[in-house]
Amino acid sequence: MQGLMMDYQLTMDRILEHGNRQHPRKEISTMLPNGSMHRYTYADMYRRVKRLSKALVKLGIEPGDRVATFAWNNYQHLELYYAIPGAGAVCHTLNIRLFPEQLSYIVDHAEDQIVFIDATLLPLYERIAHQITCVKHYVLLNAPPGTETKLRNVLYYEDLIADSDEDFEWRSTDENMAMGLCYTSGTTGNPKGALYSHRSMFLHTMGENSSSALGIRESDVVLPVVPQFHAMAWGLPYACVMSGAGMVMPGPHLKPEPLADMIANERVTIAAGVPSIWTALYHELKQNPRDISSMRATVVGGSAMPRALIVAYEQELNIPVVHAWGMTELSPLGTVSLLLGQHQDLSDDEKWDVKAKQGYAVPGVEMRIVDLDNKELPWDGQQMGELQVRGPWVIRQYFKRDITDDYMTEDGWFRTGDVSTIDENGIMTITDRTKDLVKSGGEWISSVELENELMAHPQVMEAAVIAVPDEKWSERPLAAVVPTPDGHNLTEADLKAFLSTRVAKFWIPETILFVEEIPKTSVGKFSKQTLRKMYAAGQLQ
Ligand code: AMP
Known about the structure:
By secondary structure, this protein is α/β, with parallel strands linked by helices. Among the domains are: 12-32 and 39-246, Rossmann fold (3-Layer(aba) Sandwich), CATH 3.40.50; 438-536, 2-Layer Sandwich (GMP Synthetase, Chain A, domain 3), CATH 3.30.300. The protein is 29% helix and 24% strand. A 9-stranded mixed beta sheet has the order 2-1-11-10-12-13-14-15-16, with helices on both faces. A 7-stranded mixed beta sheet has the order 7-6-5-3-4-8-9, sandwiched between helices. It has a 4-stranded antiparallel beta sheet with strand order 17-18-19-20. Helix 15 links the parallel strand 24 (474-483) and strand 25 (511-514). The chain binds adenosine monophosphate. Adenosine monophosphate binds at residues 184-185, 231, 301-304, 323-328, 332, 358, 416-418, 430, 433, 523. Adenosine monophosphate is lined by residues 184-185, 231, 301-304, 323-328, 332, 358, 416-418, 430, 433, 523.
């Protein structure tokens, strides 16, 4: 027997309609390229999205067509997050920091029909334009009059909106239609696309907004520092509109000074980004304090949040940290490290130990760990295995690729490629990416944990650990360390002595190098692949 409930499609336009009806006066602010603030309301956004959706249909966009964006986090990009799916098409967010070859591969693989480009990013895109044949129109955002470009078939964003009207019925009629496409920042092989549906993103939004996860509220003002091209800005543009929260979009201003100003001036309550953003912001706030008393959470994910940085934020800046784990393939939210009831009586130190873990599964996501034979391992906090997940917002296949057992198990679980433990309370700890573990003399060394311990030293700003070949032990860890501004006297011996009280002796790297900067990936994570290449080329001395 079937239930007798309404046939109500879970589509993105429902989220937008809800935001517009319930919270029409809510504000969205954007820091424009010139540093001034653009401000408007949900109601303004709604009207412009309708016009834009209609304009897309007039340009010949058919259901399922891919329409790409090449833009910063701003109000126009937010409009595109709704207008493209509302026209029945797929919003494909291009990562502006990719190498030209990767970018042209992705545009071509996705068969993008229109690309919306922020005029400030034109030179980056123009480098690949000659290799692209699928794109029928380019639309420029924020283009000052007289902007010159080598691109052909160019339209202007504001003209599209001005020449359209709001008399438009959403074309997103079925929740199983695709609505978004993100390619992973994959470090090996060609990038792979995760194709989200309206249903998967709607459910992800509800999961993210539940009190077991981020629990964004109407009274929040959210600053997504995470780029809109990194796993749909972690779903925040949908989560905020669903809950009626105000939003602050940083545009191209991702340096610590403007971010600190935005937090203070806009009374931001929640900001979200990768750990390297928080490291930089912490040092800025220590040097030039601002009134950041409005903040009720920093949401950190994308890489492990070093425990020392959690302590710095909670103890020194009085900002609670919400550490989350996710993947592009999970839309992206998988687990959240919030304290449970049983943790309330712990000491601060013990609470930080818990928060540094990746946490429990968000309702909607199931997880398990398995051994090399795909046999499930117990949740004892000790045994490490490959982390696998399943759920309504987990991919079952990459876009235009065959299903292979590299990433899907026969019994329908997605293989994350992360290695983790899960304890008896269901709290998961990532120990490494499979390919980043260091295998020394037959024993595993967790590069993530070593990095965490190094970054616990007060004069270490960033630390990354890679495995390097070793004749005797097969592999040994090598650490690259960036000292803090007051850490120029720090020595290798100091760090080894520091580590000796914190990790097993065989974990201590023979070589700890001081570098000016840890190379970062296109989404701001430590790029161990680049470090490994630099080491192989003799550039790490
Ligand atoms: P991406 O799809 O680019 O966001 O990359 C996903 C990968 O980032 C995961 O498979 C993890 O290896 C890593 N990752 C994400 N969040 C965390 C976290 N909180 N701690 C450790 N690793 C993380």
